[in-house]
């Protein structure tokens, strides 16, 4: 039965007037006045339930990264393990990109592995391709453009305020990477004032969408305040997603007595399973060719 938690009205009130608390959904009210009057009694219960709902979302195992559209092998979670092609909007693994580039002996052979479009011949041409993708609300293109402004790269003048503007837009369109970068901006005061709470907020948004780096950062933040259980939960999910730093953090927790031997053994198994899923000869060749590049 729909009953107002403050005044008790129910059957005699219009069903359309009985509304649930928007935050927790635990209680209902017949009017805004009743909701405000009942707030002092309901506040703690509401905040507790809101925290529970958030944790249910936060610690839910995110889906794995999609497969590379060329080799159909699971995409590495490390950003250096893939390349975004602004010509077609596809994310391609480094192995497939290297396989095509290594065979290119002339300009006409240096093409996108997916759509066969010639690669940009200048920074200006590349930025224009990103801007064209931005016009159709491509979140990856918008996120990458934000990175150009943040770093002052590819001929774009450094402008962190512009970078944050683009990252917010990309995040709203679904980019977990963008939310992770916004979190880092708040953590280090880049274009905004340092705000640890806001950093955790945006890392949380990114982690829910599957960003393993943001998840690792959340683990570190929880560890700093002494909540080792939450830290371990974050690190375990991040390790399963392929973040090697989280694996090292679990090892450190085990050595310090904050995690068990079974916890560390489980983390090792999860990380090895991830490596097995993303491994390919082409990716190994790409990693050997470029010592800077790593895909795991």
Question: How is this structure best summarized?
Answer:
With 296 residues, the protein is mainly alpha-helical. 56% of the residues lie in helices and 4% in strands. The protein has a domain at 1-32.
The tally of strands reads 4
Helix content: 55-70%
Structural class by SSE content: mainly alpha
Work out the strand percent.
Answer: under 5%
- Global Rg: 24 Å
Order of helices and strands: EEHEEHHHHHHHHHHH
Anisotropy-based shape: globular
Distance between the termini: 54 Å
Count every helix, treating DSSP H or I runs of 4 or more residues as helices.
12
Largest sheet: 2 strands, antiparallel
Strand neighbour order, sheet with most strands: 1-2
Explain what this protein looks like in three dimensions.
With 296 residues, the chain is mainly α. The protein is 56% helix and 4% strand. It has helices at 32-58, 94-101, 123-135, 139-151, 160-172, 176-188, 196-208, 212-224, 228-240, 244-255, 261-278, 281-289, and strands at residues 19-20, 28-29, 82-85, 90-93. The protein has a two-stranded antiparallel sheet with strand order 1-2. α3 crosses α4. The longest helix is centred in the first third of the chain and has 27 residues, at 32-58. The model has no long low-confidence stretch (mean pLDDT 92).
Write the layout of secondary structure elements.
Blueprint: E1 19-20, E2 28-29, H1 32-58, E3 82-85, E4 90-93, H2 94-101, H3 123-135, H4 139-151, H5 160-172, H6 176-188, H7 196-208, H8 212-224, H9 228-240, H10 244-255, H11 261-278, H12 281-289
Antiparallel strand pairs: 1-2, 3-4
């Amino acid at each position: 039965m729909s009953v107002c938690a403050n005044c008790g009205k129910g059957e005699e009130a219009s069903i359309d007037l009985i509304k649930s608390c928007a935050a927790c959904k635990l209680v209902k009210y017949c009017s805004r006045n009743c909701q405000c009057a009942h707030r002092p009694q309901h506040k703690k219960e509401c905040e507790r339930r809101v925290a529970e709902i958030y944790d249910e979302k936060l610690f839910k195992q995110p889906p794995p990264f999609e497969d590379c559209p060329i080799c159909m092998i699971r995409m590495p979670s490390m950003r250096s393990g893939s390349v975004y092609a602004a010509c077609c909007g596809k994310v391609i693994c480094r192995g497939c990109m290297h396989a095509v580039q290594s065979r290119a002996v002339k300009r006409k052979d240096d093409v996108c592995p997916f759509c066969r479009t010639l690669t940009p011949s200048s920074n200006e041409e590349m930025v224009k391709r990103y801007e064209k993708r931005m016009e159709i609300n491509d979140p990856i293109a918008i996120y990458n453009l934000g990175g150009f402004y943040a770093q002052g790269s590819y001929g774009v003048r450094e402008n962190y305020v512009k970078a944050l503007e683009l990252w917010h837009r990309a995040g709203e369109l679904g980019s977990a990477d963008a939310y992770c970068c916004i979190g880092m901006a708040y953590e280090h005061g880049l274009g905004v004032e340092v705000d640890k709470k806001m950093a955790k907020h945006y890392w949380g948004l990114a982690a829910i969408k599957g960003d393993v780096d943001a998840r690792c950062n959340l683990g570190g933040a929880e560890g700093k305040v002494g909540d080792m259980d939450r830290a371990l939960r974050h690190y375990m999910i991040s390790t399963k997603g392929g973040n090697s730093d989280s694996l090292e953090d679990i090892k450190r927790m085990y050595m310090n007595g904050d995690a068990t031997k079974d916890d560390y053994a489980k983390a090792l198994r999860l990380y090895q399973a991830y490596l097995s899923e993303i491994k390919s000869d082409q990716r190994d060749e790409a990693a050997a060719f470029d010592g800077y590049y790593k895909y795991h």
